[in-house]
Request: fold
Amino acid sequence: MTLRREGPRRYLSASQEDTERFGELVAPLLADGDVLVLTGGLGVGKTHFTKGVARGLGDAHPVTSPTFALMAVHDGGRIPLFHFDLYRLEHAYELEDTGIFDVLGYEGACLLEWGEQFQDELTDEFLGVVIAHTGESTRTISLEAHGGRAEELAEAIDAAVGAAAGA
Ligand SMILES: Nc1ncnc2c1ncn2[C@@H]1O[C@H](COP(=O)(O)OP(=O)(O)OP(=O)(O)O)[C@@H](O)[C@H]1O
Ligand SMILES: [Mg+2]
Reply:
């Protein structure tokens, strides 16, 4: 593994596997109600990160992009994982139909791709996982906490990645 902690709440991924491993390290720290908003451009690695989280929770089913379904539930692990991809959603009023308000902030862990465009309509308590493309296979991953629980989660993730990947 080449995943590295570059500084506080900031990591370097050198491969798809590193980003998945990062997700795996996050998984044991997640609790019901946690919301992670995954940001970064197209193809930056949001779905691969989610794949790692599902594996870390113990769900063996494959994670694919739920672009057409908008939501995929992975309920074979320690807690349910709700994976949303809101890329194709054009208007905030369409959010209601995705079922997101039934779960967001209280049931399972919710991971959102392209959720930042509806930030005002969703929740203001979330952990931002910001992935930036720095080369063909390199990414920086930064955590941006919004709210008390997100702060706690960011601290726990930082410690876990530091321990597993070196500071
Ligand atoms: N360090 C890395 N971390 C994650 N993915 C990487 C990395 N290096 C290369 N890749 C490649 O980048 C692509 C990431 O795809 P992925 O579907 O996870 O992105 P995404 O952010 O979910 O995109 P979209 O916005 O289209 O949903 C994959 O083809 C993967 O192999
Ligand atoms: Mg995706």
Q: What stands out?
A: The domain at 4-165 is CATH 3.40.50.300 (Rossmann fold). The chain has one domain: 4-165.
